[in-house]
């Protein structure tokens, strides 16, 4: 559910190495097609080599991927409901964390109570 509707960028690094996986192999290994279809999220895979850029230069596929991600997020915030979904997911996670903390507090208090009764 964390992926639902959110853009996913995969930077497939190490493409300068001889045994690097190609885009279709990466899709299969990471089961990207299933994630994208199940979660209805836009996805882009950029095969890149982080070592290709030196200093202020960056490998062109990395730039393209980041540009795609920023454009997609910007579009979703302006015309979609990405911002609301992120806020909702964050609030949901915080509530879950609070519930787990409360459950731990109860277990600790119960253990303490049982020890004191002995």
Layout of secondary structure:
Elements: E1 8-12, H1 23-30, H2 32-39, E2 43-47, H3 60-79, H4 82-117
Parallel strand pairs: 1-2
Characterise this structure.
By secondary structure, the chain is mostly helical. The protein is 61% helix and 8% strand. The chain is built from 4 helices and 2 strands, in the order E-H-H-E-H-H. A two-stranded parallel sheet has the order 1-2. The model has no long low-confidence stretch (mean pLDDT 85).
Index terms:
mainly alpha, elongated, two-stranded parallel sheet, 118 residues, 2 strands
Proportion of beta-strand residues: 5-15%
The helix/strand order is EHHEHH
Helical percent range? 55-70%
Radius of gyration: 22 Å
Give the overall average pLDDT. 85
N- to C-terminal distance: 45 Å
Shape: elongated
- Strand arrangement, major sheet: 1-2
Number of strands: 2
Largest sheet: 2 strands, parallel
Poorly predicted regions are: none
Number of H- or I-type helical stretches: 4
Structural class: mainly alpha
Summarize the structure.
With 118 residues, this protein is mainly alpha-helical.
């Amino acid at each position: 559910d964390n992926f639902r509707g959110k853009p996913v960028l995969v930077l497939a690094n190490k493409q300068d190495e001889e045994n690097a996986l190609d885009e279709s192999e990466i899709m299969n290994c990471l089961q990207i097609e299933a994630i994208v279809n199940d979660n209805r999220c836009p996805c882009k895979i950029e095969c890149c080599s982080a070592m290709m850029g030196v200093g202020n230069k960056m490998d062109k596929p990395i730039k393209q991927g980041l540009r795609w991600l920023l454009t997609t997020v910007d579009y979703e915030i302006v015309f979609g409901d990405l911002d609301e979904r992120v806020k909702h997911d964050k609030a949901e996670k915080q509530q879950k964390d609070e519930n787990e903390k409360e459950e731990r507090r109860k277990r600790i208090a119960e253990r303490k109570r049982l020890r004191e009764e002995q």
